[in-house]
Design a protein that fits this description.
single chain, 282 residues, five-stranded antiparallel sheet, 5 helices, 15 strands, globular, disordered N terminus
Length: 282
C-alpha cells in the first residue's frame, strides 16, 4: 500500500479525469456492486454515529442498561439505529429513524421498550458474535493499533449475512484505510469464514502540513483485489467533510480505481491505460 504524493499525482489525476470521458474506462457489475455496498456501509455507519451521539447526550440514565447498537436499511431505504438491552439483547430500548442519508437530527425517536423483529434479532446476533470473536482473537487473525478502534457493521441482504469490521481513528486529523475484515455467517447465524480486506493499515492527514500545496488526491495500492473496496468507499465518505482532497485512487496489478468523494462516483480503468497516460505526461 502507498500513501500520497501531492505534486506528482495532482497533474496526472487531472489528465486522467479529462481523458476518461474520451478514452476507455470500465464500469461493470462488480464495481457497481462495490460502489453500492460502500454507500450502504457509509449510511449505516453514519446512522450509528448520529444515533450514538444523540443517545449518550439525551438518555444518560439508560447507558448502563445498553449492551450495544446496530443500524440497518429499511424497506423504504431509510436507516434505523437501535439500542438493545444488556440483560436481554432481543429487547430494544431506544430506536432511531433517519433519512436515506442520515442527518444529525433523526426523523423519529422511540423510547418505548419493545421486542426486536426477526431482522433485528439476526443483526444483533451476528454483531455480538463478531465482537466476541474479535475480542477473543484466538488465532491472532485480527490486528489492533494504538489510537484506533474497531467498528462493526452487520449487513443482511438477500441470503448473505456478514459483519464488516473497519478501523477508525481515536484522534482527530487523520483518516485510516486498511485493517478491515469481513466475517460471514450462514442462515442460522453460525460463523462460516472470515477474511482480511487489506493486509496493512495507512493514515492520511486531513490537510497538508503547512497549508500550502493542498492535497488534491490520495492513493494506495491493492495487492490481492483488483478494485477499490466497499470499506474504502465507506471510510472516504465518512470523512469527506473533513479532508481537503476530493479524489482517492486505488492501484492494483491490473486495474486502477478512481473514486470522487464529492460526487460519489467510481471510475475504473486498465492499469496499462493508466501507465500510458502517466508516460505521456512525462
Amino acid at each position: 500500500m502507498v500513501k500520497y504524493k501531492r505534486n506528482e499525482m495532482n497533474k496526472l489525476l487531472l489528465i486522467c479525469l479529462t481523458l476518461i470521458c474520451f478514452t476507455t474506462y470500465s464500469q461493470n457489475k462488480t464495481t457497481d456492486q462495490i460502489l453500492e455496498e460502500g454507500k450502504l456501509l457509509f449510511r449505516l455507519e453514519k446512522g450509528s454515529w448520529y444515533g450514538t451521539d444523540h443517545f449518550l447526550e439525551n438518555f444518560p440514565t439508560k447507558r448502563d442498561s445498553i449492551l450495544g447498537y446496530v443500524s440497518y436499511e429499511t424497506s423504504d431505504n431509510g436507516i434505523n439505529t437501535i439500542f438493545f438491552n444488556r440483560f436481554d439483547p432481543n429487547e430494544i430500548l431506544v430506536s432511531y429513524q433517519f433519512d436515506n442519508v442520515p442527518k444529525p437530527e433523526p426523523l423519529n425517536i422511540d423510547t418505548i421498550t419493545r421486542i426486536a423483529t426477526k431482522l433485528e434479532k439476526d443483526l444483533i446476533a451476528i454483531n455480538q458474535e463478531a465482537r466476541k470473536m474479535v475480542t477473543e482473537n484466538a488465532d491472532n487473525f485480527f490486528s489492533f493499533y494504538e489510537n484506533s478502534s474497531l467498528n462493526f457493521i452487520p449487513v443482511i441482504k438477500g441470503n448473505g449475512k456478514k459483519v464488516f469490521v473497519i478501523t477508525g481513528p481515536q484522534i482527530s486529523g487523520i483518516v485510516i484505510i486498511g485493517n478491515d475484515y469481513i466475517i460471514n455467517y450462514d442462515k442460522n447465524n453460525n460463523f462460516k469464514d472470515k477474511s482480511k480486506i487489506h493486509n496493512s493499515i495507512l493514515q492520511f492527514p486531513y490537510r497538508s502540513e503547512n497549508g500550502e500545496n493542498a492535497i488534491e488526491s490520495t492513493y494506495h495500492s491493492h495487492i490481492v483485489t483488483d478494485y477499490i473496496s466497499s470499506t474504502d468507499i465507506c471510510t472516504l465518505l465518512l470523512y469527506r467533510d473533513y479532508v481537503e482532497w476530493k479524489q482517492h485512487i486505488v492501484i492494483s496489478q491490473k486495474e486502477v480505481s478512481i473514486f470522487n468523494l464529492e460526487h460519489e462516483t467510481l471510475f475504473t480503468m486498465k492499469k496499462k491505460d493508466w501507465e500510458k497516460i502517466k508516460n505521456s505526461k512525462k
